Amino acid sequence: MTPGRACRLLSLLAFAGLAACAQPPAKPAFYQDLGSPSAAIDTAAAANLINNYRQNNGLPPLQVDPVLNQIAQEQADLLAARDSIQVSLGGERAIDARLKAAGYPAASAVENVSAGYRTMAETFSGWRELKTHNAHMLDPNATRFGIATAYAPGSKYKVFWAGIFAAPAE
Q1: What are residue 86's phi and psi, to 5 degrees?
Q2: Taking the model in full, what pTM does it have?
Q3: Helix 120-129 vs helix 43-56: crossing angle, to nearest 10
């Protein structure tokens, strides 16, 4: 074997050895399985996913709002506790009533709730496919966003979701 060829072979082996030690790339946050008690949604990654979709549809981005995140969390927790998304349909559980009770003045607000999706990617796809949920994500009046999940180990759904799209009152 010639010295040049031996050098190339050694370089190739060294590179292969380093490549074997490299960690695989981390899974994007929107693919994180939220079906466990310790899982928490990455609200920034969720907003990024929804904002890219809004941008592709000619709409401005939403800002993550910590108050809306908290209101969404309370809703997701209730859905999980009752093992149903039906509790969100009216009365004191309607989005306008909950925002008012929380002291959040909103010019407009809409909400998506769902159950059974284990990742943000699945949830986004599901919401995009449902006409009303899609319209909420693409609400041209919305400027703020909150999202939350709750895990219910005894439920067939496991993960409950609440997303709020709102425009604060001026």
Answers
A1: -70, -20
A2: 0.82
A3: 30
